[in-house]
Amino acid sequence: MIFMENIVELQNLEKEYDLGLVKLHVLKRINLKIKKAEVVAIMGPSGSGKSTMLHMLGVLDRPTRGKVIIDGVDISKLNDNQLAKLRSEKIGFIFQFFYLIPSLTALKNVELPMTFLGKSVRDNEAKAKELLKMVGLGERMYHRPNQMSGGESQRVAIARALANDPQIILADEPTGNLDSKSGKEVMDILEKLNKERKVTLIIVTHDASIARHAERIINLKDGLIVKDG
User: Fold this and answer.
1) What does the alpha-carbon distance between residue 107 and residue 110 come to, in Å, rounded to a whole number?
2) Which domain holds residue 100?
3) What's the burial of 177, exposed, middle or buried (CB within 10 Å: 0-12/13-18/19+)?
């Protein structure tokens, strides 16, 4: 078996939210290692802590206790600007509701993450075109979100997530707003990215048929990992 370095590690991670009179303990003593190029699904009932874990993995929030280590970097040692830079460079996000900017074309939506990192305008456009062609939208790049189907919009979101060559893709219910045909197309694209680009793919889902695409399924319940296999 070929050894693969861990890209993500959670050590004794806990997350609490202070609600005034009470504290909500959402994640409890989470220990998790995810290897480079691994495909992992995170499942669990509503309120199990899936969304909070996604925020931890995507360094969108800091833990109350414990450590989040991304590609060898302990995020507790980073300030907010350094965290934002790590997020932009290492992690791509795909959400259920796409979150495309309605007034921008598909091309401009995909260019945005590169613009935030101050990259060349000409290079950004060329790369965005290449990514849109890769997800099968070469003929739709000048269309706006309201001119595209849900499946097409999600493919734009995938292209946008890849704009800065992330090592990790976090997909939060990526097919939850799609019909079964479009959902299969999206999963096919994500699987191809994992195989060809060796991108680590972490999918948060309640759908067992989507989870079956993963090499490993992690089940959460009441803020604890109850099964990992």
Assistant:
1) 5
2) 37-48+79-228
3) middle
Q: How far apart are CA 96 and CA 131, in angstroms?
A: 20
- φ/ψ region of 73 (left if φ > 0, alpha if ψ in -120 to 50, else beta) reads beta
**Within a domain: residue 19?**
no
**Model confidence over 89-144: pLDDT tens digits?**
899 999 888 899 999 999 999 999 998 777 788 889 999 999 999 999 999 999 99
CATH number of the domain enclosing 133: 3.40.50.300
Q: What is the pTM of this model?
A: 0.90
219 touches 44 (CB < 8 A): yes
Among 12, 24, 91, 98, smallest CA distance to 55 is for: 91
Each residue of 28-39: pLDDT tens digit? 999 999 999 999
DSSP 27-42: EEEEEEEEETT-EEEE
84: its two tokens: 């934002």
